[in-house]
Amino acid sequence: MTDDHKRHLAGLTRRALLRNAGIAGAAAAVGVIDVMATPALVDAPMEQARTDLSEVEVYEHFTADESKLLEAIADHLIPSDDEGPGALEARAVRYIDRALGGVLADSLDAYRSGLAAFDRHCRSSRDGSFLDLSDIDRTSTLIDIETGAVTGAVAGFIGNSAAFFEMVRSHVIQGTFSDPFYGGNANFVGWDLINYPGVRTAVTENDQRRLETDDLRPSRRSAYEWDQFNKTKASTVRGRDAD
Fold first, then answer.
1. With CB atoms 3.0 to 4.6 Å apart as the test, which of 25, 38, 89, 114 could cross-link to 85 if both were Cys?
2. Sign of the C-alpha dihedral, residues 228, 43, 91, 8?
């Protein structure tokens, strides 16, 4: 492995990703509220997320092989470690699966072709599936994809491999840190990772002081548990589904 490759490897660490995800996660937690809800979820109470990873998640848009591969990628991007749980515990892939039935529907083909191309690249360049690779080889393979080293129509990616990586990375971050209403951030593990205190309709001076000293108790509530948030508005972006 070259020195440049090692430096890039270090740039993919969980700590570096979480530093960037702090801003993106806060934006997702608030900004995505107006565009991601589905009619099926609007009138239903927020479900209690599972914490037992031995239970099999049932997906609507991913095959069993696709979901296992995407979960492995998500787990490598934001893994569980001594700093806390990661993308798997947050159910980030469940978030992606649900969104592919709504606002992310245009990304479904990119996921299908991209995951297949990613698997082919792993088998041809590393002699095995991504699930069977070591952590170092997994990271090295993701670097190949991120940097656009796997390109062209022969590879099978829509656009190029770098676009696929950025799409997956962005959606994994959204699924880990967005409002739990959308299927991810199970049990608020994403918000806990970035010390996000939760949705609040008002913050007193005392609250602000406690927030700055990490003494403010998190508000473990979805935004849609507040009457002030308009669920009907959120569902209107999916007019084609409401027809």
1. 89
2. negative
